[in-house]
């Protein structure tokens, strides 16, 4: 009689004599990945997606189908209307707060006394590379509060420092990058801006 392709026969030991030839294992076959979609939302750290579909379902104990969807993080810096996103999404470039002393000396010599401001952030994540090299990066950890000064010349046209998070949503994750150590970067949340400030000597940084 006909040979039924029922995998249970391998366990019950009653497969037909030509089972392997009549019922070969057929693995799942999937298509190539589609092109990546755009970011799910503009002006946010979000994700993009690519998909593939099943061409051949597995049969007779063949290899199962792999994942049909894949996601990857992304940031879209332009709105759907074609306008540039707010500066809050641009990674803030920071260096040691001690660098500001030389800036103030040069500003005084040039007769420039434009007032700056400070922004308080709470660190959410940081890369392992922050634990090496520059001493001014030591002691950083998740959940730590830090103070970042905005001074000329980073204070562009007397307005804002690049990447200070102004206009960001409450609890929005913002990106930062340490200057001089490309391996040290992470995310933080903006807590508040202080128009008149003096950042403490510990965990104090400067916008570049």
The averaged pLDDT comes out at 80
**What gross morphology would you assign?**
elongated
The structural class is mainly beta
How large, in whole angstroms, is the Cα Rg? 28 Å
Spatial strand arrangement across the major sheet: 5-8-9-6-7-10
Amino-to-carboxy terminus distance: 81 Å
Count, helices: 3
H/E element sequence: HHEEEEEHEEEEE
Describe the structure.
The protein has three helices and ten strands, in the order ααβββββαβββββ. The protein has 208 residues and is mainly beta. The chain has a six-stranded mixed barrel. The longest helix is centred in the middle third of the chain and has 12 residues, at 99-110. The protein starts with 8 loop residues before the first helix and ends with a strand. Keywords: Disulfide bond, Glycoprotein, Signal.
Write a compact overview of the structure shown.
The protein has 208 residues and is mainly beta.
Write the layout of secondary structure elements.
Elements: H1 9-12, H2 19-22, E1 29-30, E2 45-51, E3 54-56, E4 69-75, E5 92-96, H3 99-110, E6 117-126, E7 145-150, E8 174-178, E9 185-194, E10 204-207
Salient structural properties:
TSP-1 type 1 repeat; 3 helices; single chain; 208 residues; 28% strand; mainly beta; six-stranded mixed beta barrel
């Amino acid at each position: 009689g006909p040979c039924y392709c029922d995998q249970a026969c391998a366990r019950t030991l009653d497969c037909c004599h030509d089972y392997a030839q009549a019922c070969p294992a057929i693995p799942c076959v999937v298509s190539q990945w589609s092109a990546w979609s755009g970011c799910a939302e503009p002006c946010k750290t979000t994700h993009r997606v690519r998909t593939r579909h099943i061409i051949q379902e597995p049969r007779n104990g063949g290899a199962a189908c792999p994942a049909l969807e894949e996601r990857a993080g992304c940031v879209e810096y332009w709105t759907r209307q074609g306008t540039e996103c707010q500066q809050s999404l641009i990674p803030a470039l920071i260096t040691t707060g001690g660098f500001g002393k030389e800036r103030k000396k040069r500003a005084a010599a040039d007769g420039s006394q434009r007032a700056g401001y400070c922004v308080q952030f709470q660190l959410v994540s940081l890369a392992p590379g922050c634990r090496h090299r520059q001493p001014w990066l030591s002691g950083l950890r998740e959940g730590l509060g830090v103070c970042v000064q905005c001074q000329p010349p980073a204070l562009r046209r007397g307005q804002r420092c690049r990447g200070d998070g102004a206009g960001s949503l409450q609890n929005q994750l913002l990106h930062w990058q340490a200057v001089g150590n490309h391996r040290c970067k992470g995310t933080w949340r903006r807590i508040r801006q202080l128009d008149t400030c003096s950042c403490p000597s510990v965990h104090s940084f400067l916008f570049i």
